[in-house]
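Session log. Operator J.P. requested a structure for one protein chain; no other inputs attached. Running the standard single-chain path with token output.
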Amino acid sequence: MSRRMRIVPSLAVVICAGLGVLQPKTAAAQQPNVDFSVSGTSTVRSWTCNVKGVLKVTPGTNAPALPGLAGGAQAATLTVPVKTFKCPNDEMTQHLMDAMKPDQHAEITFRLERYVVTGGKAEATGSVTINGVTAPLTLPLTFEASAGGLQVAGNTRLDMTKFSVDPPVVMMGLMKVGPQIRIEFKGVVTP
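Structure written below.
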């Protein structure tokens, strides 16, 4: 192979790698900054599964002020990768994956539409997408200034069946997961 033939493929690899660096990062590619959990009950025991997510906040100019964001937030999106959930054991994690279908619906997302601030708390309204189903959601949030930026925490209860998630039933029906779940998240956002 001539020297020129060896340089052209190498140059193509360098250009492709450079284009990859220049592409805007998706939420899933950003550094996780939120601890996210989903918990519930079953006929046998209560359970909690955890995952790291990404909360991205775009500073605003005239939205309600938040600690460290005098102009408030123009937009916010919480993205959670379903495939990386971890439950107390592999069998529980597999039941969650079977119910959530991560190959078809890779992420859970919440997109902020508006919020009202009262002291260090807020009520956020937006839309949540779980298992490909989008629905409106209002949830309470707390805010606190932190050395790394703005600490945000929130939690709410949901009925998983409203998002086309069938609660797992195992051991020939002896163990059934309840449809009500609690989602919780906490993390630090750097504006």
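Operator note: The helical segments are 3-22, 90-100.
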